[in-house]
Write a structure and sequence with these properties.
The structure is a single chain. Helices cover 0% and strands 50% of the residues. The chain is mostly beta strands. Strands 1, 3, 4, 6, 9 and 11 form a six-stranded antiparallel β-sheet that branches. Strands 2-5-10-7-8 form a five-stranded antiparallel β-sheet, with no helix packed on it. A hairpin with a 2-residue loop joins strand 7 and strand 8. The radius of gyration is 14 Å and the shape is globular.
């Protein structure tokens, strides 16, 4: 099963294709990933699993835009889920979108990859748990 815990977007080995910002309060850690407003500008996390199975992933985000910012969840190169990342009302209002993803034994990459030109919402962290 995968390692459980919190994986901050601003802490390696996480990768933020945008900037690490800290100007909108309410985030965890020292900042959050502010993805550029573009398709394909992602936030990526690396977790390790002792065995193949499923992981529950909670993605904490903020979206002050007037519309959803949809993104695919890509695990080890394969799209496994999609989430709308609906508006939260303010960049300081954080919400969590939860999904279940497959993992393989060993190192796994979990990428949140936007599908529209509005890009990602601000991504604070992912929480990973096992069933």
């Amino acid at each position: 099963m995968p390692q459980a815990g919190r994986f901050e977007a601003e802490t390696a080995p996480a990768v933020c294709q945008g900037t690490i910002d800290s100007d909108n309060s309410g985030f965890s850690g020292s900042g959050y990933c502010n993805g550029s407003n573009a398709v394909g500008v992602y936030a990526q996390f690396t977790i390790t699993a002792a065995a193949a199975g499923s992981a529950t992933v909670g993605v904490r985000f903020a979206n002050a835009g007037g519309a959803a910012r949809p993104a695919n969840t890509i695990v080890n190169g394969a799209t496994v889920a999609s989430a709308p990342f609906n508006p939260t009302g303010a960049w300081t209002t954080w919400s969590t979108s939860t999904l279940t993803v497959p993992v393989t034994a060993g190192s796994n990459t979990i990428r949140i990859d936007p599908t529209t030109a509005t890009g990602l919402p601000n991504i604070d962290y992912i929480d990973v748990s096992t069933s």
